[in-house]
């Protein structure tokens, strides 16, 4: 393993331009510093410094090593400054992973109750594919993963799925597109441009099955892993798009679209996945209770 004290001596010698000046700042003897530099070079298997007359200069390997050493010890100084100037009351860190198929408005509504906790809270959110988020959850880089599906049974990762709630889906379009759609919902979707979730979304298969049952054949013009991108395309008039019925009002207000109709038989379910079987993190407790009482109205 790299000896960081020896690396620090190398860094100081390189910064000051020689062993003598480095020793003055380190309050060490030249023999000590020279000996430690030799051990470092022996460990690395390369020379970092070489004599040039009475001076020392960096070798090619030394020039490569110096920027890394600078970043290491700069980061150390920043860490020390950060820890020495911590406020008396530390915020609770809440690290949330969001599966990219989950609508952003749902995520905001789920996280909103955590911002009202009496304890100071700092939320960090990261969006990614579910499998990668669960891998980070397993090694405790995340406290929670929000998904539209429970923990996949084929993953060898410890985790527990907590159902937050479920709702039907609603169909949306711009007012201009809606005026051109013939007939009543859902028959008006026949042959019309449709934007659908990508193959990673649980909702995709349910929607396509529902269309088959209704004998309706829309014209799929776009598939999106990112729900926000799908809604942005819908906002531009590219086609009809879907979103959870629980946030229909927010979708209409945010994107300036109209709701064409709602289907309660096509269910979208949301989960909080954690490493805890019994939830204890105060933010996850608040999220779970808020989802049931306010977003999905489950009492």
List the helices and strands and how they pair.
Layout lengths: L3 H13 L2 H8 L3 H15 L4 E4 L2 E4 L1 H25 L7 E8 L4 H8 L9 E8 L1 H9 L5 E4 L12 E14 L1 H6 L12 E5 L4 H13 L4 E6 L2 H9 L5 E4 L3 H8 L2 E17 L7 H14 L4
Helix pairs in contact: 1-2, 1-3, 1-4
In words, what does this structure look like?
The protein is α/β, with parallel strands linked by helices. The chain is built from eleven helices and ten strands. It has helices at residues 4-16, 19-26, 30-44, 60-84, 104-111, 130-138, 175-180, 202-214, 227-235, 248-255, 282-295; strands at residues 49-52, 55-58, 92-99, 121-128, 144-147, 160-173, 193-197, 219-224, 241-244, 258-274. The longest helix is centred in the first third of the chain and has 25 residues, at 60-84. The mean pLDDT is 90.
CATH structural architecture of the largest domain: 3-Layer(aba) Sandwich
Question: What is the distance, rounded to the nearest whole angstrom, between the alpha carbons of the first and last residues?
Answer: 56 Å
The CATH class of the largest domain is: Alpha Beta
Residue runs with pLDDT of under 50 for 5 or more positions = none
Shape category: elongated
Mean pLDDT: 90
Q: Output the helix-strand order.
A: HHHEEHEHEHEEHEHEHEHEH
What is the radius of gyration? 29 Å
Give the helix tally: 11
Within CATH, the superfamily of the largest domain carries the name Periplasmic binding protein-like II
Q: Order of strands side by side in the largest beta sheet? A: 4-3-5-10-6-9
Q: Count of DSSP E strands?
A: 10
Question: How much helical structure, as a percent, in the residues?
Answer: 40-55%
């Amino acid at each position: 393993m790299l000896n960081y004290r020896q690396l620090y001596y190398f860094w100081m010698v390189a910064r000051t331009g020689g062993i003598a000046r480095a020793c003055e700042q380190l309050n060490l003897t030249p023999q000590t510093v020279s000996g430690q530099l030799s051990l470092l070079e022996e460990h690395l298997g390369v020379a970092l410094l070489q004599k040039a007359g009475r001076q020392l200069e960096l070798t090619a390997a030394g020039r490569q090593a110096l920027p890394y050493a600078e970043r290491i010890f700069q980061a150390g100084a920043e860490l020390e400054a950060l820890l020495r100037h911590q406020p008396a009351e530390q915020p609770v860190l809440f690290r949330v992973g969001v599966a990219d198929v989950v609508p952003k408005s749902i995520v905001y509504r789920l996280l909103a109750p955590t911002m009202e906790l009496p304890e100071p809270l700092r939320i960090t959110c990261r969006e990614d594919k579910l499998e990668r988020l669960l891998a980070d959850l397993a090694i405790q880089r995340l406290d929670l993963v929000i998904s539209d599906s429970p923990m996949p049974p084929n993953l060898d990762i410890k985790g527990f799925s907590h159902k937050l709630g479920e709702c039907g889906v609603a169909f949306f379009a711009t007012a201009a597109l809606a005026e051109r759609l013939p007939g009543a919902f859902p028959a008006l979707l026949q042959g019309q441009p449709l934007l659908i979730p990508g193959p990673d979304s649980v909702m995709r298969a349910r929607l396509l099955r529902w269309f088959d049952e209704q004998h309706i054949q829309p014209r799929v013009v776009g598939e999106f892993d990112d729900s926000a991108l799908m809604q942005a395309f819908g906002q531009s008039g590219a086609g009809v798009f879907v979103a959870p019925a629980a946030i229909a009002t927010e979708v209409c207000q945010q994107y300036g679209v109209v709701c064409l109709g709602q289907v309660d038989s096509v269910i979208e379910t949301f989960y909080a996945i954690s490493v805890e079987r019994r939830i204890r993190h105060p933010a996850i407790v608040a999220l779970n209770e808020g989802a049931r009482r306010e977003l999905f109205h489950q009492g």
